[in-house]
Amino acid sequence: MKHGKKVNHLGRKTAHRHALMSNMASSLIKSTQKRVITTLAKAKALRTYVEPLISKSRNDTTHSRRTVFSYLRDKDAVKALFGEVSVKIGNRPGGYTRILKIGPRPGDNAEMALIELVDYNEFLTGSPDKKRTRRGKKKMTTAKTAVTETPSDESAVPETPSVEETVAETTVDQGSAVTEVETATAIEPVAEQSQEEGTETQGEEKKPE
After folding, report:
1. Segment 104-120, tens digit of pLDDT
2. In what order do the strands lie in the sheet with 111-117?
3. In the CATH hierarchy, which top-level class contains the domain 14-125?
4. Domain boundaries along the sequence of the chain
């Protein structure tokens, strides 16, 4: 029976298990994306192994570096842990890792998982510089800016003529055109009458006495 046994031996001897955890912790710290894909049992065991070392790196002293090196046995991993990782997780009070299940393995159907450092996943945490806003608020702000950009000076805005003024102008134009036509028609018969009178007077003068 497995009562009160908190350590998963992973089917290995003590030395083999410690070497496995040390190598996996170093791979997690030195990787660029700060994540490792392994089985779910190993990921849970690695969490309890690496999180105390990350807490130890928050106090950058010679004693802390030597203590962490006794577990990791890798100078590059210790340097990355105290240089890059400790600065990134300096304000977090624990909970440095995240385990995500990714389904069974095709060969032996073992349940696989992804273990990663929490502060390095930008997809889940989001960039701290950008603020989340709703789309409706964005549209409202653009509408407000468009309203504020309208010219405030009334003299700069061109005055549009009213409907009454346009109607009056058209009536005046039509009236002037009608008067011109009437005068033209009135002048034509007068000219014709004057021509007829001139022909009559010439004819009368040519008659013999």
Report:
1. 999 999 999 999 999 89
2. 35-39, 111-117, 97-104
3. alpha beta
4. 14-125, 163-199
